[in-house]
Amino acid sequence: MPEPVTFPPAFLWGAATSAYQIEGAVREDGRTPSIWDTFSHTPGKTAGGEHGDIAVDHYHRYRDDVALMAELGLGAYRFSVSWPRVQPTGRGPAVQRGLDFYRRLVDELLAHGIKPALTLYHWDLPQELEDAGGWPERDTALRFAEYAQIVGEALGDRVEQWITLNEPWCSAFLGYGSGVHAPGRTDAAASLKAAHHLNLAHGLGTSALRAAMPARNTIAVSLNSSVVRTVSQDPADLAAGQRIDDLANGVFHGPMLNGVYPETLFEATSSVTDWSYVLDGDLQLIHQPLDALGLNYYTPALVSAAESAPAGPRADGHGASSYSPWPSADDVMFHQTPGERTEMGWTIDPTGLHELIMRYTSLAPGLPLYVTENGAAYDDKPDPDGHVHDPERIAYLHGHLSAVRRAIADGADVRGYYLWSLMDNFEWSYGYGKRFGAVYVDYSTLARTPKSSALWYGQAARTGELPPVTTE
């Protein structure tokens, strides 16, 4: 019989969501449109024209949702603040009604013994800032710092875990490169400018939070760093892997962790941009000391060199578009990795999570790590009795949490794990067709039903030990 997989006593067991995916109430209490409101209401941009106007109505049901988290035994909850809810249009003073929602949410979490982890930006840029140029414009980073100060001053007395940005790669390259995410622009040069200004926003936001909050609070960023593997050790394939690694990873962790961009990134993208928007002093502003690093992981990437731009859709797992999210990498081929897949078409490979954790243990020695997102979409349906059994997700979680535990045994300082997602929700351009939740949501009634995986994960959270994998 295998040894039980047991975690350190202080390990944090959480679940994660984001504002636009769950809150709804898009026109209440002073909130103005975000780029996702505009994008999702543009014909052809989301599956079935679906949007987050109501989502799962967390704005009105948050007390019940927090009670459900407590019933499941979660120790932490990672949520994001809607920028246009607390600072409509992205400029000027805060709307207290918007901030009051997050005050109430945080107080409810604390009353139930659940640690709040606050993400400032999970992709819902105020539309007026996009109209002024969006993330390719330097001013957006300055506006973000003001927003960070507003939220830090309002909630810094009761929230100790802070995250500046969630997955800036998606914001930059899916939003401005391939156009499959809001705002839906398809400009390779703009995507690289957006990446730099997201980096700058992180640095300026970190400094603003430090000035606005008690010193005990911790600040991190959540990166969806790719585990990039090559089909062979051929020099051409290795060069292709380096190019994708720079565009997926080095473009963010280079300046954030080390204060430098990879020279190979500059060389590879020189035909697209001259990087003249990187001003003197920017790298020092970006390279702020962090208290932790968040890692989001779903599946590895497998690449090779190609003699010319590959025909047909890319197998990079980032949606269908005739425009690439990989500037200056049209001659890189993405391959489907072998193995079982989730409903997203993503290969299930826990070894990638172990590899990712160990890489950042080496890149940033001494920096505590959190897995801030990990999970899987499956075609979950209630049985005739109303129960939702999802043994595939239980197996997925067992495999990936076991990989986290192996990394801890190998010397990694992993402090916690946030399951994506707490409940089914609006899955961006996929609409409501992809269910990542541990809690099933009936979209006609918005009733919540914990799936088998939620009960399994809750037992792990309460005991610090992974229960056996069951098939029921």
Automatic annotation (TrEMBL):
SUPFAM superfamilies documented for this protein: (Trans)glycosidases
Pfam families (alphabetical): Glyco_hydro_1 (PF00232)
Entry annotation: catalytic residues: 373 (nucleophile)
Taxonomic superkingdom: Bacteria
Native source organism of the sequence: Streptomyces xiangluensis
Record bears the keyword Secreted: no
InterPro entries reported in the protein's UniProt record: GH, GH_1_N_CS, Glyco_hydro_1, Glyco_hydro_1_AS, Glyco_hydro_1_beta-glucosidase
Keywords from the UniProt entry: Carbohydrate metabolism, Cellulose degradation, Glycosidase, Hydrolase, Polysaccharide degradation
Protein name: Beta-glucosidase
EC number: 3.2.1.21
Gene3D superfamilies for this protein: Glycosidases
Enzyme class: hydrolase
GO MF terms held by the record: beta-glucosidase activity
Catalytic activity: Hydrolysis of terminal, non-reducing beta-D-glucosyl residues with release of beta-D-glucose
Family: Belongs to the glycosyl hydrolase 1 family.
